[in-house]
Amino acid sequence: MTQFEWEHRPEISERTFESPYVIWYEKFGQRFEAGYPGEPVNQQPFWIKDTSNVAATKSGDPAAALDGIRITSVQPWDPDTDGSLIPPEPWHRAPLRPESVPQNYDHLAAAPSPGLAKPQQDKQLVIVAVVDDATNFAHHRFQGANKTSRVDYAWVMDGKPKDPAAPTVPFGREWSNAEIEHVLKSSDSEDAVLKELELADFAQNETIGLTKRISHGTHVMDLACGYEPEDEDGQDRRIISVQLPRRVILEASGSILHLFVKAAIRYIEARAREIARALGQGSVPLVVNFSYGLGAGSRLGSHPVEKCFAEITDAGDSNDSVNPVHVVLPAGNRFRADGHAALIADHNGQHQLELDWMLPAQDQSPNFLEIWLPGTALDRTIELVPPNARFGAAALIQEKGGYLELVDSDSKKGVAWAAADVELDAQRNRVGKIRLLLAIAPTYVPRLEPPFAPAGVWKIRVSATLRTNDDICAWIQRDEPPYGYRRPGQPSRLLNHQESRAQKIDNEISEYVNWFAKSGRVTGYGTLNGIATAESMIVVAGYRWRDASCASYSSAGSDSVRSPDMAAISDRSRVLGGVLAAGSRSAVKVALNGTSVAVPQVVNALTQALVNSLAFGGSDTVSSLNLGALVINTESDHNQNKINWLRGRDTRLTAEGGGVAEQMERSGFRA
Amino acid sequence: MPFSTGATGATGATGATGATGATGATGATGAGGGVGGRGFTPGESYAVTTARDGIMGRWAGPNRNVSAYTAGEAGNMSEWPVWARGYVIQSDLLAGMVFETAPKDGIDFQVSHLGAGILTEGKTTYESEPLFSFRRPRIEDFKEQLDYVNTYAELRMDRSAEILSQTGYPEHFFGVILGLHPSRTKYSLELMATAQLFATGIAQRVKHALACKRPDMFSSQIQPMIPMPGHGTLPSGHATEAFTVARVMSLLIDDRDIEFGIQDQLMHQAERISINRTIAGVHFPADSIAGAMLGLGLGEYFVARGRGLGPGAAGPYTETTSNFISTAHFDGTVVGNEDFRMRTLFDKGQRQSLDAAGRRIVELGAKVNVVTATECLPLTWLWEKAKAEWPDRRAADM
């Protein structure tokens, strides 16, 4: 019988927020990497740094900001002399394929020109940027008449640079409007187009989203800005598409996501300015669609990904050629994922949050749990008891105090780690919360050396001295691969013992609308997308069209987590899931659900409002716009019964848009 | 005999009018159903015998009016059951063909047609003209192709319904494009089934000669989603049959090169059927390249034989007519990591050569007159019957 023991390691990391995941990956995580079918191939470690700064993007030259992203294949520090496995600031590890990375250039070459923008009479041109994966930007829904393209710029981060000696982007392949049109006009089949654009090539020996019938990015982009080629309304929008590298979106912890999102934002800003400059008619609004979510995070709005978006949405200078800028994100689909628990202190004093964290057997991916405590909490202790263990281990949580490692007594190798760090509350500019990250190894990986983590229920007890209304929150990091990809690994969950069996059945039947937030238990309230908590973002939940009830999976806010701003349709009916939009190939329509598809509908409505109004600006755009049918303002809903949210009995809903049927009619949604 | 799939053979002789199948094409020849499939149960047999005893009376010798059929007349085909007709045509076709193993350097197997004979001093000698030849890929060439079998496997779930429906002859997939019906277009269905059968026969013979191993012999991770067939991998039987059918039916009904037209749809369907086999894990893309090349050529050959342009036949007899078809050679040693795409082998209404990075994978050669010693009048009979079912046909007059 394997014995495990907790050992304390005194190493300290000076890195900020993302460091626990980085430490974990660099020191331990690589041991558990095993091949799986369809995994991205030819990945090698590179190191990426961003030497630009925010000021450069807002009032300076955003192209220079893009140029500030540099990648090297030469390890930029020596772990032996430096004593650390962690890349020093400002370097971050980035897995990329060598053929995507140009290395011998001084500066990025000038951006290609955008296409010819022809907004209709008295309409404001708006730029729509979609950051996603598996996006067929040559689809007929993004074309104008006669095989012209409404996509001005497309960055395929997995692609090969056209001219590695003079790249226009720091890695991958940029396609200009002229190049896309040339491919459209000179190819005689969509297969040839997709191969030419390096979007779907069977010679690449890995899972590629666009080879399948349904692809996430194409569906989302169609809802956001897809129009038939002859439709004049399409001309009021110019499109920028960015596709993240497959290896990055497959990384479950999200620890490398922000590097690439930052690059995407820099790119979008720089290219949006090109479009605005070419138009030469004052400010051009920009709406960014980012249909992606993470399970864990502080929900303080200071996740590195959120900071990337905040850089461009912060109230801008009205002389800025790209203004206003809106970023729209999904609320998340984890309401029923059993991935969150919260305890709210009802008095000053000692409190304890007990969790049963169930790790499935044969789970090939590591599992992460983040526990957040207020920075002001005292006497913080955590006890972690592995399954079948006769004893646990209690330890004091200290920020920057090293980490705990659960070591297998035979091999002396670790199977679980706990480390703490502090996150600044950037929005309120004070020490916000302390995070304890629990990382647990896979419970089994075929063909890898043991030890593995024991599967089963891990008991966690967190106690601290809190003030009234302080909270202790726990979130499991999302562990499902993105749509269309296979990555081995099972999601873990928190067991909810407070629900009786009768209550469980009742919840299923009522689709969880009666599931109130209660303290000290596993709950769906507070499961909002970990990268959609910044104030400046527009966050969209999902609902079911037929009876206007909340999508049972749509994440919600809580007393301490912001709520979504509005909702859009994410399922048509109980039987017909999802929303219809473009499939991977032209003229194909498919259904896809989730709050991911609610986001682009809001992007579309928001874009249309901006198109219609030539005199808009300011930060209050969301509430001041009469977005009508699709959107329902739910500002103070997080305390209310979810059933009132969207049932049509909500008076705000009725006042703003009439009955559900009329709303659907106005939104263009036909039965 | 080459009835190896026999998937729908159970419907046998009644298949042509098949209540069981909208097109019921394979039933027309009773493929795999043994011979015919029409019979009496033991009980019926006994009953008929006892009844005869009862009613026959005394033997009276010939007492019916009877006259002879004209021997050897093609029109007699209408007298025979559908399955028997299939054998007649098959035999006539094969009697005009020659198979040669390693006839010369650089060719592993060759399919030729038997030219019109030359009578000298009371003896007829025949010359064969090579039509389709093959040089098989080496093991290292197949290894280069193997990655595709893995990458395409990503689509197994997406395509599973199609793959499982297409394990036999995929006649419905062509039937829905053309609008075939067991009554109204029964001869077209019969023609399609006959062409399919012909293609299978040739494909199996070539597979035997080239003796190429299947993808699962190269890797334990292929794990195909349908049982791996026992015969050789190259050329792909499905690709050969599908492209033969596509070519024959387009020449029968509408071979105009128009976007989304009948020929376009038939060819794309044949392509998809072929690629589905790679997705399933039972073929390399090179098998489909060889199969498509062979199938397209066999389709034209089948129709040319059916036109009955033997010596003395009516009709024009020049190099521009359809009895002259291009030879084709497949060189598997230069296929490398070339993927299969229909447009590289058939474009603008014509078969094409396939060049990749300076290598000639498929080479179309000179046009050859496929008038043979043996006319295929039964096929001509069937061809004319099938043509008559399409009053709006838009194919070059063949």
UniProtKB/TrEMBL annotation, chain A:
It comes from the Bacteria. This is Peptidase S8/S53 domain-containing protein.
